[in-house]
Amino acid sequence: MFDTGTTTFMILCTSLVMLMTPGLAFFYGGLAGKRNILGIMMQTFVSLGITTIMWVAFGYSLCFSGGEGGIFGNFDYAFLNNIPFDTPYSGADGQYPEYIFIAYQMMFAIITPALITGAFVNRVTFKAYLIFLIFWQIFVYYPFVHMVWGGGLLAEWGVLDFAGGIVVHATAGFAALASVFYVGRRKDRLSPPNSIPLVAIGTGLLWFGWYGFNAGSELKVDAITTTAFLNTDVAASFAAITWLIIEWIREGKPKFVGLLTGAVAGLATITPAAGFVPIWAAMIIGIAAGAVCYIAVHYKNRWQWDDALDVWGVHGMGGLLGTVLLGVFASASINGQSGLLEGNSSFFFKEVVAVAGASAYAFIFTYVMLIVINFITKVKVSDSDEDLGLDEALHGERAYDDGAL
Fold first, then answer.
1. Model confidence over 153-200: pLDDT tens digits?
2. How many Å apart are CA 391 and CA 209, to the nearest integer?
3. 251 burial type by CB count under 10 A (0-12 exposed, 13-18 middle, 19+ buried)
4. pLDDT per residue as tens digits for the range 34-70
5. C-alpha of 105 from chain center
6. Hey, what domains does the chain have and what are their CATH numbers?
7. Angle at which helices 98-116 and 171-183 cross, to 10°
């Protein structure tokens, strides 16, 4: 009944995207100061549990059942009701069970809010974060999944997003910027990364998992799948080297963290375009990602926005840039959609408006939501807890024994 090869491929891609969440925890955990390693990793890992519960209970239903042309779906698939275990997924011509698609999309839902946590490292209480995690998904992530991928408003308008430039990176990145403005600066902004090798491990896991993130988003195995796979690696590589060169010229030394950050910027930027552009365009997108995201981080520092781990500069600007460049470089010969270079200014305009609107909405909603959460429970940690470090103050644990590092 089902195609064994495609079924296996989608199970593998789902597993790869799941691996990205621990990879993100290692990436952020290595960049954080040594008193806040577990706090930031905890915020990432907890999404694996809470988001899974939400997704099965009602998240998948709100994203992918009913609501054609609208903002939300309905509750027809709540608790996966009306979906027998052997139901074929119609979006892939019935080649594998819908349960695999449910799990695959769930992994996207898990990592998206976790991306935001790097911006407010060591400044937000765990209780407030849990409330944030739940309601941000309901009112930001779920609507954009439905509108772009679930047959909703933006899909009917003709907006495309191959694997999450709008849905994942732009919304998370600009939500991160809003959270930075709300919680303010850290008392100690000069704390260095506690473990650059841990950052490298996290980057490796993210890069590896991103093949499932992008190539798997074709939702079947064909020439577009392999194009998305290769575009992912090409853009990441070009962005990493671009960032390395710029930083080397500006600061006089090649920085390992810069190389790793550039790679992640390239991965985020190619995400919306991976299955719609030719390889030469992926090279340009990678170079643009390395340069633009580096500049964004530089100006973030100049403006003294305390986005601790550069979530806005890398993911927010990467998602925005990648979506705009999708509107420029999309090629009808690749996946049937032409962009600005092929004379389709209408599609370019739609992509620009969609990503700008999504970014603005995520920013405004996040800021207002944090104000509301603060009425329920304090959002920002106390000065004494920030001085002590959230690992010990909130969780009663330490990442390393006394004297280590």
1. 999 999 999 999 999 999 999 999 999 999 999 987 777 899 999 999
2. 27
3. exposed
4. 999 999 999 999 999 999 999 999 999 999 999 999 9
5. 13
6. 4-395 (1.10.3430.10)
7. 30
Band (402; pLDDT cuts 50, 70, 90): low
Q: CA separation (Å) from 342 to 95, 331, 358? A: 33, 7, 26
Q: Could you give phi then psi for residue 97, rounded to 5 degrees?
A: -65, 150
Do the Cβ atoms of 254 and 244 come closer than 8 Å? Answer: yes
pLDDT by residue (tens digit) across 154-167?
999 999 999 999 99
